[in-house]
Amino acid sequence: DWEVADRSLPLYVVIGTQFASAMGGGILVAHVGNAYTRGIGHFIYGVLASLPFIIIMVLAKWLRRNNFTTIPDVLAHFTNGNKLIRIVAGVMTVFVPFGWVTSQITAFGNIYSNLTGIDYTLLCVLFAVFALAFVMPSGLKTVAWTDFIFSCFMIAMCIVCVVFVTVMGGGVSNIVSNLNTIDPSMLSFSSSITDNIGVATCMLWIFAVLPGGMTNQIYFQRVCAIKEEKQVNKSLILSAALSLLSFVWAVYMGLSLRSLNIAEIANGPTAWFMGKLPTGVMALFAALVFATLMSTTSSGVQTSVTNITRDIISTINPNIPDHKMVTISRVLSAVLMAIALLMCLVWTDTLNWLTNTYAYSAAALACPVFLSYGLRNKHFITTPGIVAGMVFGLVGCAVAQIMKTSLNFAFIGILVSAVAMVIVSAATKKKGTIVADAE
Question: How far apart are CA 257 and CA 323, in angstroms?
Fold first, then answer.
């Protein structure tokens, strides 16, 4: 139940929890705000954030058929249970979901402090404490089912928001006309990318957000938890479609608010929009914000703890009984939440280093996972090759970032990882050094 919900989740729950986890507070706050500032070109981020669901389809049925639970499970499988690889992969896999947790707490504090005037720190503490209630009972099982309920509410409220913002803007045609008057680049993909976003930022998205999503433990875990293997691909296609629609929503909301041409909106488009809604609708929107942030937070905590217990603690001491491991998981959930809370109070701008977690996770894990899978029956990729791919990927990413190379540091990390895997595997190749799978 704690790790993969007893591998019993029905299709609709898997789709709901994938959507709720992927949508997150970033959609409601950061991406609405970015669309408000940058224009329609910001939709590219949504495409890149949704594509991992489609790419994971390549190995989804294989993951479910082998009853894997985590990404380190996959790498341990390809290295005959190598403990060092499992532990290092466990640490690297935690990066992205933990980054999601911190960003959700920060988003909640920012939105509600602006809306209510309540102290930012107090709001973050209350949110973190309440989020634990969604994780503690049964781990992924409670997280997934509450996510499904949240996702139904999210979809309904997003439709309501579109109606209200369209009325505020005087209709779609008036919104378009106003945007063309205020800043024509807002409705041009090429202009919004070159003038407002920047090619360098787009490159960072391509080589951090996309491969980072491909190695996102949250997505993998739900594939492994679905009840019927034959429904895995359907769940990923529908999750990708819903994720993409959520970005369509964010871009439309941001552009519609920009068309109003009110200076104070720039301080926080989502909070401003909430404040202009009728009291009853505002209460429902506030619930939408809470549900969205809470679903991603609880998913991130549960996934991070699963990596720590299954891939690090259990590797060091495999004799811990299940009931004790559940207790440890609950304690670690509280500890992890406390650490995330402290980070949110120190660094309130989480978007930059959240993108960095994507980059480093992808540099360490993308090639070891996908190259190993792609060549799983070729007896080519070796255990030293996988180690080299992880280590050199991290080092290459860090060196490129420090040196501020012209090429994106995430791209360099992934490239170095791939080259290191091939060279070291070729140098250490022996028959049977990697596990072969029957198709």
Answer: 51
